[in-house]
Amino acid sequence: MERIPRRAAVRRPQRFFVNCPDGPFEPARITGEVRSSSHLDGLGVNQELAIESLASGDGAQETAMLKFDHLTIPVSNWAASRDWYVKSLGLRIEFEVPERCTVALQDQFDFTIFLVQDPITSHAARLSLTFQVDDVQKSFEQMSRKGLHFTHPPQKVFWGYGAELRDPDGYSVRLWDEKSMKAKG
């Protein structure tokens, strides 16, 4: 078996995180079986996982970190939510399935959010989506000028430092940047 250098399996960092009522989802190493986190299952998280084993120099197997690349979110009106995420956050439409009231939206790093028209549970309503931006203060000002209403401007909060707004279904959408987080979070 050809040895694959560890760096070859590392993908560019994702700039999207999922916070759940029980705390942030922390990727775990998978050893032999795919286990799911029960608090994510209830939110409809797609868990199509590709696992790649890497051989270390001593013949032991090491598991590569999984790439979290799809999230399904129930929404009350898929078309209205699609329009909001595209107009407000700049996500692009990957594809739509109107007869199933579903749209796939992507960020610039190819992370896909599926918006599916479906009844929203009270548990799912506590989901928050966190997006990294270049400058949270500038993003806040630009988005405010476009008419978006924020829950709060950039400030220190329990999850660090950033701004927060709500999508049409009341999901928390958080914005942060690395520099402000390090300096003020």
Describe this structure in words.
The chain is of the alpha+beta class and 185 residues long. It folds into 2 domains: 26-123, Signal recognition particle alu RNA binding heterodimer, srp9/1, CATH 3.30.720; 127-185, 2,3-Dihydroxybiphenyl 1,2-Dioxygenase, domain 1 (Roll). It has 5 helices and 12 strands. It has helices spanning 6-9, 38-41, 78-89, 136-145, 178-184; strands at 16-20, 23-24, 53-55, 61-63, 70-75, 92-97, 102-106, 112-117, 128-132, 150-157, 160-166, 172-176. The chain has a 6-stranded mixed β-sheet. The longest helix has 12 residues, at 78-89. Residues 1-55 have low confidence and may be disordered.
Number of helices: 5
Count of discrete domains = 2
Low-confidence stretches: 1-55
Average predicted local confidence, pLDDT = 76
Largest sheet: 6 strands, mixed
Radius of gyration: 18 Å
The overall strand count is 12
Strand content: 25-35%
In CATH's first tier, which class of the largest domain applies?
Alpha Beta
**Backbone structural class:** alpha+beta
Order of helices and strands: HEEHEEEHEEEEHEEEH
In the CATH hierarchy, what is the architecture of the largest domain at level 2? 2-Layer Sandwich
Amino-to-carboxy terminus distance: 45 Å
Major sheet strand order: 2-1-9-12-11-10
Spatial shape: globular
The name of the CATH topology of the largest domain is Signal recognition particle alu RNA binding heterodimer, srp9/1
